[in-house]
Design brief:
- This protein has 968 residues and is of the alpha/beta class.
- Among the domains are: 99-332, no CATH class; 342-560, no CATH class; 850-965, 2-Layer Sandwich (Alpha-Beta Plaits).
- 43% of the residues lie in helices and 16% in strands.
- The strands form seven sheets. Strands 4, 5, 6, 7, 8, 9, 10 and 11 form an eight-stranded mixed beta sheet that branches.
- The radius of gyration is 46 Å and the shape is elongated.
- The protein contains 31 helices and 28 strands.
- Helix 9 runs antiparallel to helix 17.
- It is a multi-pass membrane protein.
Length: 968
């Protein structure tokens, strides 16, 4: 083995060890990484394919400007002529329109079956009865209010004429001079007014209608002739006493959702406020439920202008007389060149799909952290000297590097194949956004990992978050963003959930890239962040603040709840108040608590306790472990009493000694080891390892110990050599010393030859894993080693080889070994302690224990069952105190006190018996260690059953303490 290096490994040495291990682990999972990174690549290619299919469809004649073959000069030869007059609604958007048509301004009039009527929830008597819906005669209601009712009524009277006629010579001008409206939906473009290209009639609004319900007129627009039905709609202006009454009626008559299901629609509402002859002040309500696919309301504003004109025109007529008119002649679209349909599916679907792409990193990081927790690998690393600082630094940087590479490949690939979502938006904004979010996502993974200990559960929860966030973002959050009536403050509250922050940022990128592609402009630039409708600035601020807060909370919870040493919740405050020394110094050893001395029946245990007291008063450097009245009590649950796992254990262990702990299952051996390695805290008492207190200096103790746990804690994808290299670096081994130590360790446990050292640990047999765990515990020459049943699962040859390793290793270190093998205990242990019911029952070397508890021989004889009584009489003559301890089918075992019998007498008695009957087999044996173990264990259990109290030195408790009810 390599000579030990002085001092524990430095911060950067530990960080280097963990980084090398992580990179090796990553190399082993190359195919998993390929599958992970292929998901965004496949998705981008799918979007590209979908975009190509859509482009092919949009390039067909169905979506190109309409054309016809027309004989333009009468020579019988037709020429292809294209334009808006030959186009359908789907084709108009691509046509060149140098002189857009003029359309009369219209009101948005409810269809007859949806016009306002009197109902149970709107009981105004001036509304018509609902029976008018059956005849289609319901009026179109206009609500108005203000500070002056008579003034308001006069204005409304001027807004809606009593009667109007249409001039057939110039129908469009005539329509503009009257009050017209339509129930058809407005569209994105007003190049072709839907009111004149649908089966819905155009309504002429007037105070009363004649018997003629409708007329058909021919409308000439450019080269188009449109036959249109014009119906009369009776306008009914109704006064309300306040704006709140108008608002209440509009609200109650509105069926949220599909506009076609609105049950009590109002044409418009006016609040004239303080309008008088010197001041014109009006607020107008209009129907904003007609929106395009993106949720924008500006389409319905095309028909708001007419409502404003009616109010303005009525006020002018009030001031200047009825002859004065401010005509609103037409609504006209802006001229446009010939264009092509541009639908970028990466922008349309990007917010949803790319949310899934980015957030799928969360379950990857999350499950990796939970895997280390479930397999207790984090604990194993910490017990071999890895500090919290290097662990957090390297783990965070490792996941950040992987996430950054993933996102970089994603953006580069999307840009290379030409997705506008990436190419049109400023790359620096994308870099800042993705960088901040992946930091927040990694911090969240660390925080969530503190609350999970099962990988399968963590994986399910992680992927529920992935798909749930995308679906909630696409089908809930997006609609709330686009709904201008939804409070912006609640949007910010929802964005506190990191998944919605991610979705909002991707949504902003998609909107800017879609608009920029369609309009031929650029995508999102830094200057756009100042736009009030752009939410990117607010989510960047939210994510930065959350990143720092979540990272701090995750670190705090890890130190308090998930830490192996279990720090106090006030550890940050305590660290601030008192600086820890830069290096661990041997503290003064003091006995914890008081004690009550009682007459003891176990002088060896009492002697050990006295030795501990002496060492606490006069410390010695040659004693590596001193346990001072160590106790562990588990609180009662579900009505069960407290469980005393360890009852005041005192033990002193010098260097160069292997101490074996024997005991039945549940005796408290594992609880003792757990306290010594920092997995649990002692209830009372303490222990010192190399002079360091296990309650306060576990971080220092971890650099001095090695642990072979009861269950193998190994990375399935790392080889045996890589395990030892990692743990050797944690023990401050470097260069050739590290290589030599690793090779010697592998050879010592028979894992060096035949390529076994470079095979992944997941492919090892149980025995090979056990040998590797022993090698890990001894690498780096720790002065204290804990081995919990190290030879479990080994074949005889491997077990003997392992025993030789432990024999060699114990020369310059203290070893505590638990085992159920009496043979192993005799071979390896210098001293043994039999641990029953939470306390030591005896301490000594194997020979002393056999001499102390083995004052008898075991005599075994097999005869015919007819001679059993004669055999029993023979044994009684040999030893009056003999006891039969076994009897079945002629085979009997007797325990003969050594002071009552001589071996020669036994031989002579058997020879004499052979003359009288047939002796099939016989034997005489001394007491074995197994006999001692069984005798001590059964004796303690018998005492407990009879309620006999054993004597023990208790720490800090009086005779009324609950523990005194239990025997020892």
């Amino acid at each position: 083995m390599a000579e030990p290096l002085l001092g524990p490994a430095s911060f950067w040495t530990q960080a280097n060890a963990l980084l090398r291990k992580n990179l090796t682990f990553q190399k082993r999972n190359i195919w998993t990484n390929i599958r992970l990174i292929s998901f965004p690549f496949v998705l981008c290619l799918l979007l590209l394919l979908l975009q190509s299919l859509v482009n092919n469809i949009l390039n067909t004649a169905t979506f190109k400007c309409g054309c016809q073959c027309i004989d333009t000069n009468g020579d019988g030869q037709c020429e292809k002529v294209c334009g808006i007059q030959y186009s359908t609604i789907n084709q108009v958007a691509t046509c060149p329109i140098l002189n857009p048509p003029k359309w009369p301004p219209l009101l948005q009039i409810p269809a007859p079956q949806y016009r306002a009527v009197k109902t149970d929830f709107i009981p105004f008597n001036d509304l018509p009865d609902h029976s008018c819906r059956r005849t289609g005669s319901c009026p179109a209601t206009i609500l108005f209010t203000g500070n002056n009712q008579s003034f308001g009524k006069f204005l409304v009277r001027n807004m809606v004429p009593n009667y109007s006629t249409l001039n057939s010579s110039d129908v469009l001008v005539s329509l503009a001079q009257n009050v017209q409206g339509s129930a058809s939906r407005p569209t994105l473009y007003n190049l072709l007014e839907p009111a004149f290209f649908s089966d819905q009639p155009v309504y002429k609004v007037q105070r009363r209608c004649t018997n003629i319900s409708s007329i058909s007129v021919a409308i000439q627009e450019s080269s188009m002739t449109i036959q249109q039905d014009v119906s009369c709609a009776r306008g009914s202006p109704l006064w309300r006493n306040s704006s709140s009454a108008v608002n209440d009626e509009l609200y109650k008559g509105y069926w949220k959702g599909n506009p076609e299901r609105q049950i009590n629609e109002i044409v418009t509402g006016y609040d004239f406020l303080n309008t008088n002859y010197n001041s014109f002040n009006v607020s107008i309500w209009y129907n904003s439920t007609y929106k395009n696919e993106s949720g924008k309301e500006f389409i319905s504003l095309v028909r708001v202008g007419r409502s404003m004109n009616l109010a303005s025109n009525a006020y002018i007529q009030l001031l200047l007389g009825p002859a004065t008119t401010m005509l609103f002649e037409f609504v006209k679209e802006m001229p446009k060149p010939e264009t092509e349909w541009r639908l970028d599916f990466a922008s349309i679907l990007g917010a949803l799909f790319f949310t899934w792409v980015v957030i799928q990193l969360f379950p990857v990081v999350f499950t990796d952290l939970v895997y280390e927790k479930e397999q207790k690998l984090r604990i194993m690393m910490k017990m071999h000297g890895l500090g919290d600082g290097p662990y957090w630094l390297i783990s965070y940087a490792y996941f950040l590097s992987l996430s950054s590479i993933y996102m970089l490949c994603f953006v580069i690939f999307g840009s290379v194949i030409g997705l506008k979502f990436f190419t049109m938006n400023d790359f620096s904004i994308q870099f800042v956004f993705y960088f901040i979010y992946i930091n927040l996502q990694i911090s969240l993974a660390f925080l969530a990992a503190a609350f999970f200990s099962n990988v399968k559960t963590a994986r399910v929860v992680g992927y529920i978050c992935v798909f749930g966030t995308g679906l909630l973002g696409g089908f809930l959050f997006q609609f709330l963003i686009e709904d201008t009536s939804f409070p912006r403050g609640w949007i910010i509250v929802m964005e506190l959930y990191p998944g919605f922050s991610l979705y909002r940022g991707l949504y902003e990128f998609s909107q800017y890239s879609f608009t920029g592609n369609y309009m031929g402009t650029h995508g999102m630039q830094w200057g756009d962040l100042s736009d009030s409708e752009n939410g990117m600035k607010e989510i960047l601020i939210i994510m930065v603040v959350e990143w720092l807060v979540v990272l701090f909370v995750a670190y705090y919870i890890d130190q308090v709840a998930s830490s192996v040493s279990g720090k106090s919740p006030m550890f940050l405050y305590e660290r601030f108040r008192k600086k820890h020394p830069s290096s661990f110094q041997r503290p003064s050893l003091q006995r914890q608590g008081s004690k009550v001395s009682v007459q003891m029946e176990k002088p060896d245990v009492s002697q050990e306790s006295e030795k501990v007291e002496q060492l606490l008063l006069e410390p010695r450097t040659d004693y590596a472990i001193i346990c001072d009245n160590l106790k562990k009590v588990y609180p009662g649950r579900d009505g069960n009493p407290e469980k005393f796992a360890v009852r005041g254990l005192s033990l002193a262990l010098p260097l160069g000694e292997c101490f074996g702990m024997l005991g039945p299952n549940g005796a408290g051996k594992t609880s003792f080891i757990s306290m010594m390695i920092g997995l649990t805290k002692p209830t009372t008492g303490t222990a010192y390892v190399q002079g360091l207190d296990i309650r306060t200096h576990m971080d220092g103790i971890y650099t001095r110990i090695g642990v072979c746990p009861q269950h193998d804690l190994l990375w399935e994808t790392l080889t045996g050599r890589e395990h030892l290299l990692f743990y050797g670096r944690l023990k401050n081994l470097k260069g050739s010393a590290l290589t030599q130590a690793v090779e010697e360790s592998l050879k010592s446990v028979n894992l060096f030859y035949g390529g076994v050292a470079d095979k992944q640990a997941g492919k090892y047999s149980g025995g090979m894993k056990r040998r590797l765990s022993v090698a890990v515990s001894l690498i780096g020459d720790p002065k204290v080693v804990y081995m919990d049943e190290p030879s479990t699962g080994l074949d005889p040859a491997s077990r003997n080889n392992l025993w030789n390793v432990v024999k060699h290793a114990k020369k310059d270190r203290a070893i505590i070994l638990t085992t159920h093998s009496m043979e192993e205990a005799e071979v390896l242990c210098d001293r043994l302690g039999i641990f029953v019911d939470g306390s030591l029952q005896c301490i000594g070397n194997p020979k002393e224990l056999k001499a102390r508890y083995g004052g008898s021989y075991v005599f075994t004889i097999t005869t015919s069952s007819t001679y059993e009584d004669e055999v029993e009489n023979m044994v009684q003559r040999l030893s009056p105190g003999a006891k039969r301890i076994y009897h079945i089918s002629g085979t009997q075992k007797f325990e003969l006190p050594k002071h009552e019998v001589k071996i020669a007498d036994v031989f002579q008695a058997v020879e004499n018996a052979k003359c009288r009957f047939t002796v099939l087999a016989w034997g005489l044996a001394g007491t074995t260690l197994e006999d001692v173990f069984i005798k001590v264990a059964h004796g303690v259990q018998a005492f407990n059953v009879r309620g006999v109290k054993s004597n023990q030195v208790y720490q800090g408790i009086g005779p009324t303490h609950p523990e005194n009810r239990y025997g020892n």
